[in-house]
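WARN retry 2 of 3 for item q-0093 after timeout on previous attempt; input resubmitted unchanged.
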Amino acid sequence: MKILVVDDEQDICEILQYNLETEGFEVATANSAEEALELPLQDFALVLLDVMMGEMSGFQMARRMKENPATAQIPIIFITALEGEDNLVKGLNIGADDYIAKPLSMKEVKARVRAVIRRAAPHSPHNPERAEARISYEGIVLDLNTKTVTLDGQPLVCTKQEFELLSFFLQHPDRVYSREDLLKYCWPHDVMVLDRTVDVNITRLRKKIGPYGKHIKTRVGYGYCFEK
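OK item q-0093 returned
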């Protein structure tokens, strides 16, 4: 699930990106409203938006999003140092879903992000019950609803862990993940698993997906990466 952070303070963008990615989100950042509006906003499940920025404020960007049918349903959380009830009311009247005051508590940010996404889920195009929940890369197609895989049009039998690994890699390409990361995101939290188990499952997965196995790269000392 993709989140966009828009703030003219680079350090805040980096802190939010790091903390939200540790929660399993895919995070992009922009340092101005103008930069953010150049992105495919309809691809994001949530926007964390600073209010006081450069020429275009977060309030102005939010109005544009709400006026555009393609982005009107995307939840917005304002992040700001502005105080006072008037600013809170203004943000909510524009259509914001929540409002977080600076200085930020990462624990609060994570809780509010999850709460807003949960509330928005029935109306969101990112909800698998509304959208066709498929992930694909060239001849690999995963159906997240039926938990099935096809390879060049032919059904491919995968174990649960192979499916979870492949799904995670396809949703997070071109980024290296350690064994610890993969255990966190792809295995049940109540199961004790050794790091070596990750290696074994990835070896099997590479063989199973045939010519596409070469896209799962080993980064010695760091972990694994799916290169597109």
